[in-house]
Specification:
six-stranded antiparallel β-sheet, metal ion binding, 9 helices, protein phosphatase, Phosphatase 2c, domain 1, EC 3.1.3.16, about 350 residues, alpha+beta
Length: about 350
């Protein structure tokens, strides 16, 4: 936080993909920050009818964001609610599962590997001494068993990440959010926020923080963290007398279910490094303008990142890591023409989705 390079790293990690329902582009850039702590996940074919996209904005380190990018979608897939068609419950449970999985010996070991803190020799020794012989963290079964070892009492990482996830199945969009990353949909050129930025000064967040024994100073929890919900941040989740939803910081995600319609143009998921510089409507307008002459979605994402990058670090805005995923909906997924009256207007999305030009506070 506040540690900047002498010049920004503007190399970008970009990707494009599509299927018969949608196409997407994404880009991420380190920028002025001393390290890259964002991660992302893009699975247009999570299963035969479902697409999954996630942006994970790390703070205090990169490992929790990388952990979520590796495991969160897997936990959604393997939850029994997902098989029953209840995607909202499955993703809700997956957020809490991330905190559970990062505890103990195996959680410590996986975070150490993701953080490049185990070299080849010590990693090999760690594996020989503490790893179950038949276990592989990348196995299809993903059987997260408890391991005995010197870090069996590890309570979890003190770094963390926000998590904004969008899951599309047929005509339904499920958005889950913990933190101040954001998902926005463009409906007939109008920006609608599909998530709420979880800042400590929001009344429901402030009430929970204070009741759990925390305080807010200068807009930060205990003078440190400037967001109220996150995965990780174990130091803020140590009250044994409170459920996970009522800790000073909680991974508890808001879930928003939206019915897609013919008026929907695209969906954007991005970390606060973008929203600190552009409002939701400004970004939607910029993308629409770019789509007139550019068809490659990752190129549009690249241009957004370049537009948001600050020329200097004087103000602090435009100096953060930046990650953005742009998902363009192919019109054939929006309706079954035989069932839906083509003249019927789309109603505004529910929940924290009224048209807004609000820019996130720092």
């Amino acid at each position: 936080m506040g540690i900047y390079l002498s010049s920004p790293k503007t190399d970008k990690s970009s990707e494009d993909g599509e299927n018969d329902r949608l196409r997407y582009g994404l880009s991420s850039m380190q920028g002025w920050r001393a390290s890259m702590e964002d991660a992302h996940a893009a699975y247009p074919n999570l299963d035969a009818s479902t697409s999954f996209f996630g942006v994970y904005d790390g703070h205090g380190g990169k490992v929790v964001a990388k952990f979520c990018a590796k495991y969160l979608h897997r936990q959604v897939l393997r939850h029994e609610a997902y098989s029953a068609g209840d995607i909202g419950t499955a993703v809700h449970k997956a957020y809490f599962r991330m905190d559970e999985m990062m505890r103990g010996q195996r959680g410590w070991r996986e975070l150490a590997v993701l953080g490049d803190k185990i070299n080849k020799i010590s990693g090999m020794l760690e594996g020989l001494i503490w790893s179950p012989r038949s276990s592989d963290s990348n196995s299809q079964l993903d059987d997260w068993t408890f391991e005995e070892g010197p870090h069996s009492d590890f309570s979890g990482p003190n770094c963390g990440c926000t998590a904004i996830v969008a899951i599309i199945r047929d005509n339904q969009l499920i958005v889950a959010n913990a933190g101040d990353s954001r998902c926005v949909i463009s409906r007939k050129n109008q920006a609608y926020n599909l998530s709420r930025d979880h800042k400590p000064d929001l009344e429901p967040e402030k009430e929970r923080i204070i009741k759990a024994g925390g305080f807010i100073h200068a807009g930060r929890i205990n003078g440190s963290l400037n967001l109220a919900r996150a995965i990780g941040d174990a130091e803020f989740k140590q009250n044994k007398y409170l459920p996970v939803e009522r800790q000073i910081v909680t991974a508890n995600p808001d879930i928003n279910v939206v019915e897609l319609c013919e008026d929907d143009d695209f969906i954007v998921l991005a970390c606060d490094g973008i929203w600190d510089c552009m409002s939701s409507q400004q970004l939607v307008d910029f993308i629409h303008e770019q789509l007139k002459s550019e068809s490659k979605l990752s190129t549009i994402c690249n241009r957004v990142l370049d537009r948001c990058l600050a020329p200097t670090t004087v103000s602090g805005e435009g100096c953060d890591n930046m990650t953005m995923i742009l998902v363009q909906l192919k019109k054939q997924i929006h309706r079954n023409e035989s069932e839906v009256d083509s003249s019927a207007p789309c109603r505004p999305p529910d929940a924290a989705t009224s048209p807004t030009a609000q820019t996130s506070s720092n």
